[in-house]
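Lab manual, section 2.4: Encoding a predicted structure.

Procedure: take the sequence of the chain (304 residues), apply the prediction step described in section 2.3, and record the output as structure tokens. A sample record is shown.
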Amino acid sequence: MATKKSNDTTPSETTALATSAPSSMARADILGGLDVGVTGLEEADASDFRLASITLNFNGMINNEVPPKSVWVNTVTETTSKTKRLALLVLHKSRAWTEFVQGEGTKRRCSSWDTVTGTMEDGTTRACAGCPDAQWRLESGKRTRRCGDVHNVVAMERDTGELVMLRAKKTAMDPWKAFLNKFFLGKRVVNGARSNIPLFAFETQLSAEMIASKSGNYAVPVFDVARDEKGEPKVLPVEEIQFLAETARGVRELYLDRVREVADASDGHETAAADDTSFEFGANGDRFADASKTAPAETETRFG
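Recorded output:
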């Protein structure tokens, strides 16, 4: 999947504020400021908030058949697609130790939503700092560790406006961090000071490619940002960025508990090659996925 190569220069902020018609997504106030005083949804809460997980290597049935590993599966609508157009909204870091048990599926041995305190399978808690299961070790001559970082990312589908979640962990962490560092982290310069470009400043484009390993073939997510006619990252219109910023703020303030529920449930969608399905989210702007091929995908969990 060839993409045009870009350098790491900061996109022009005048381009970011280019005047263009607001997207149909930007419908934050369809009532034109009218205060009706009642919505009819006063008893609705976070438990009613629908958040789908989208994943590759799905092992369940969609329309009475197992979908190809390389298509994205929406676990709520049970629809599939080869590509996704997203506006990334919120990143929340957690930690997890999961294992695939043949015939039983994925077992979550321990997890921590705040990366401070872990909850074991039997309900007991322990501190993440200094935890022996988070330490690197050699097993059968391979470098591995049981517990690792998970990046839970809430995004908005640009084609439908639906909120979905993706998760980066294990061998997907290197390409995911490469993507963050290439386009977002420290890439904005205002009055000589560096800061981060918002996740939702660009459209993120997801696809996938197949990888072969000792444990079988599996799909690796591939992603990039949308480009303009010159091949440079295309910044979204300012009106849309403002709308997405409000949406991101609402997700973080109101719905992180629901995000946690979906994250916990998505562990059960992993397939028999549990090491391969660490690529629930990942990939590459300029073939970043190639970097993950150099790691022993079947056991090694790599970070930073």
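Check your result against the sample. Residues 20 and 237 are 6 Å apart (CA to CA).
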